[in-house]
Amino acid sequence: MYDRWCAPDLRAKLTRPYVHLLFGARQTGKSTLLNQLISPAALYFNLADPLERSRHLAHPGEFAQACRSLPANQTGQFVFVDEAQSVPSIFDAVQALYDSDKTRWRFVLCGSSARKLRTTGANLLPGRSMVHHLYPLTLAEHPAKAGPVPGAISPLPFPWSAGNRARHPFPEWDLLNRLTFGALPGIVTAAPPDRPALLKAYALVHLEEEIRREALVKDWGAFVRFLQLAAAESGQLLNYAHISQETGLSQPTVKSHYQLLEDMFVGIRIPAYAKSPRKNLLSTPKFLFFDLGVRHAAAGLNPSAETVKANPGPILEQWVGIELWQRLQYLGAGRLYHQRSRDGAEVDFIVEHGGRLTPIEVKWTEHPTVQDARHLLAFLQEKPREATHGYVICRCPRPLRLHDQVKALPWFGL
Q: Helix/strand/coil (H, E, C) string of the chain?
């Protein structure tokens, strides 16, 4: 079993007498992690199985009956429900059971979509639950072959908790493999020849088919075109008008499709930073796919080194954005922004954390210069109190000081 960064914290929280909800995209390792952390569940409901899902949809009272059949014990019996959002009535049943006896059961519900819960008003158990999330692998879990960087200070440190440093990290990868295949646990541990086919299957089965089941999409062909375009434009500013024109869908429909990707945890929205004295800044957010390998496959591209080498800079930028966003979600504080002006001046990412702002540029170069930091310096000048240092993340082999306020870091020192 490989170690996950959030495992120690999640293990401690699962001991608390609440209902636990674990959300995340398919194949991020939710079931594997929970089976590792909890004692064998007294009851396990796999609602990803069509037969079991149909059974509970047809007989919604059966779940509560099965739970009540369990004998009480001092620590509570674990009841594990996978893909719980598939049967929203499960949440109402869990609330009723929990309210009747807060110690008899330990409910752990997994989900890969929040859409049905949001659109149907399904009960998210307010005051009774703790919500957790699991994402694809971070750099801490899936280290670089280059190893630690002496003297490197990350713009957003993400250390393992004391005493819980990974004893069994995922395999070490170089940058090209990361940008090609992404960071889903099953892809990272798969045999190299199998990875492209697995990613294409994910795009076909876990995206297209799951979305077909989740949503009432009237024009399926247009939605598939939307998905391909949204993946191809990952990392760019959202352009509803362009996607609408290319797919033949209305702009409100395009917006709802983007929301669907977020609800299924496969899309990340990066808002524009608005607290600036400049008047010519754009307010449009960026949109990222949650995983680069899935992004390539969903865009109709072959997940291969040739695909990355054709235009590596924007893909490296997406990798940095995904890594920073995931760290902020796990840390439970802070936000990630970008900034772009109408004349094209851009700061790729701005990390807001601990009362500080840290602007970050991403460059494919191995030899960064102060010219690569010019937009960072402009931002630092605008925000002298909140922002004191900026970073250029690139392929340099070791940290470099480009300016008194700007340091270049190798990607593996992030």
A: CCCCCCHHHHHHHCCCCCEEEEECCCCCCHHHHHHHHCCCCCEEEECCCHHHHHHHHHCCCHHHHHHHCCCCCCCCEEEEEECHHHCCHHHHHHHHHHHHCCCCEEEEEEECCCHHHHHCCCCCCCCCEEEEECCCCCCCCCCECCCCCCCCCCCCCCCCCCCCCCCCCCCCECHHHHHHHCCCHHHHCCCHHHHHHHHHHHHHHHHHHHHHHHCCCCCHHHHHHHHHHHHHCCCCECCHHHHHHHHCCCHHHHHHHHHHHHHCCCEEEECECCCCCCCCECCCCEEEECCHHHHHHHCCCCCCHHHHHHCHHHHHHHHHHHHHHHHHHHHCCCEEEEEEECCCCEEEEEEEECCEEEEEEECCCCCCCHHHHHHHHHHHHHCCCCCCCEEEEECCCCCEEEECCEEEEEHHHC
How many Å separate Cα 175 from the centre of its chain?
19
Residue 23: count of CB within 10 angstroms of its CB: 23
Name the residue with higher pLDDT: 164 or 204.
204
User: Mean of the pLDDT values across residues 297-303?
Assistant: 93
CATH number of 7-133: 3.40.50.300
Each domain of the chain, given as residue ranges in start order, spans 7-133, 175-413
Question: Whole-model pTM above 0.90?
Answer: yes
